[in-house]
Design brief:
- The complex is a heterodimer of chains A (219) and B (160).
- Chain A is of the alpha+beta class and 219 residues long.
- Chain A contains four helices and twelve strands; from the N terminus they run H-H-H-H-E-E-E-E-E-E-E-E-E-E-E-E.
- In chain A, strand 10 and strand 11 form a beta hairpin.
- Chain A is elongated.
- By secondary structure, chain B is mainly α.
- Helix content of chain B is 72%, strand content 0%.
- Classes of the chains: A alpha+beta (219), B mainly alpha (160).
Chain lengths: 219, 160
């Protein structure tokens, strides 16, 4: 019998991936036993930890997501009518999402709820908190248009929070639109972001903390 | 990635990702928590068009564990417990422990490259193909990883 495959290849095979070592495993009882053990353990594990728990976690915020940073803004998005000085956020959150949006309407400034809709004339600003040193890239992504860099401040320090000094006022656009915060150990470019024909933006960056907030328009 | 695609990914890889996280952070409870983080972070990333989904998830898991170790500053304590990992993985517990010790000393990319090479046995060419990093970057990061590895090995009193 030839040299046994790497453990990684046995794990890939057990997960259903195609590997060149498959021929060896077919003829090797020892490797077959490893693959069988992984498959059996995998089934038992998923039974004990069903995907439902994952989706419940998805509705909460990820634990690694605890920091925000404010930012500087560029008034170039089509959805942005004009830039104004941002009001002071009414609170400073100590835990929660990395990115917090604040909305000013009717003279009051409040944190924008996850399910809260926005309207023409709302003024938005952002706050970001970083638990580790890193680089923030804040983008406005509107379907049909190129992403717009709202902020890319110098490297942020750990356990610091920063709020955008400027806000922007929403125009009457009804296109799908998102605010995307990408936080990474090294600077990243907007090219890491893609917008599929349907659904939210995707970020191809495995070591980035990514938060996507959709701007839901009031009907 | 849709919810159904995420579910399918989870059902295929949850155990392996959990084992990886447990080896790196040294705690089943932390691994339970990190398991969700890995898949949620993967959901926000574009899955690889080519290459292994398992290697991709291991890379994501490395970064999640790296962030956790850094954030909690418990890396050393956890690293010392790395040799309690699953018996199905490499039996070289001493090497695993030292890999864990350097995990929180290095940058995330260096850790990722070092773990793929030393823990999973991927060649530099394979790491470059799976990660998209250049072969030169992989070689440079692996060299850095190995320098740090030797340094921490010596500090830990390991045999040369």
């Amino acid at each position: 019998m030839s040299t046994h495959p790497r453990q990684l290849d046995l794990e890939r095979l057990a997960a259903g991936e195609a590997v060149t070592a498959a021929a060896h495993v077919d003829a090797c009882p020892e490797c077959q036993a490893v693959v069988t053990e992984i498959r059996a353990a995998s089934s038992a594990f998923v039974a004990r930890h069903p995907p439902l728990a994952l989706h419940e976690a998805a509705s909460r915020r990820p634990a690694w997501w605890r920091s925000w940073w404010p930012v500087a803004l560029l008034p170039v998005a089509a959805a942005v009518a004009f830039v104004v000085l941002a009001p002071e956020p009414p609170e400073r959150r100590l835990k929660g999402p990395a990115l917090t949006l604040f909305v000013t309407r009717g003279g009051a400034t409040v944190a924008l709820g996850r399910d809260e809709r926005v309207s023409e004339g709302d003024r938005l600003t952002f706050q970001y908190e970083a638990s580790a040193p890193g680089h923030l890239l804040l983008l406005d992504v509107e379907r049909g248009k190129a992403p717009v860099v709202l902020a890319a401040p110098p490297k942020l320090l750990a356990s610091s929070s920063f709020r955008a000094p400027l806000a922007f006022e929403l125009d009457a656009s009804t296109a799908d639109e998102w605010i995307v915060a990408i936080f990474a150990p090294a600077p990243v470019s907007p090219e890491v972001l893609t917008l599929p024909e349907q659904g939210a933006p995707l970020v191809a960056c495995t070591d980035c903390l990514v938060e996507v907030r959709r701007l839901e328009r009031a009907r | 990635m849709t919810a159904d695609e995420l579910t399918a990914l989870y059902e295929r890889y949850a155990l392996l990702v959990h084992r990886r996280c447990r080896r790196l952070v040294g705690s089943s409870a932390d691994a339970d928590d990190l398991l969700h983080e890995v898949f949620l972070r993967a959901q926000r990333s574009a899955p690889p068009r080519e290459g292994s989904s398992l290697v991709w998830l291991y890379r994501v898991a490395t970064h999640c564990c790296f962030d956790r170790l850094r954030a909690t500053a418990r890396g050393t304590r956890h690293a010392q417990r790395l040799d309690t990992g699953e018996p199905v993985v490499s039996a070289d517990a001493d090497r695993q422990a030292l890999v864990g010790m350097v995990l929180r000393k290095l940058d995330a990319l260096t850790c990722e490259v070092g773990l793929l090479h030393h823990l999973d046995g991927l060649t530099q060419e394979e790491i470059a193909a799976e990660s998209g990093y250049s072969r030169k970057t992989v070689g440079r990061k692996l060299a850095l990883f190995e320098v740090e590895f030797r340094e921490h090995w010596a500090r830990a009193g390991g045999a040369s």
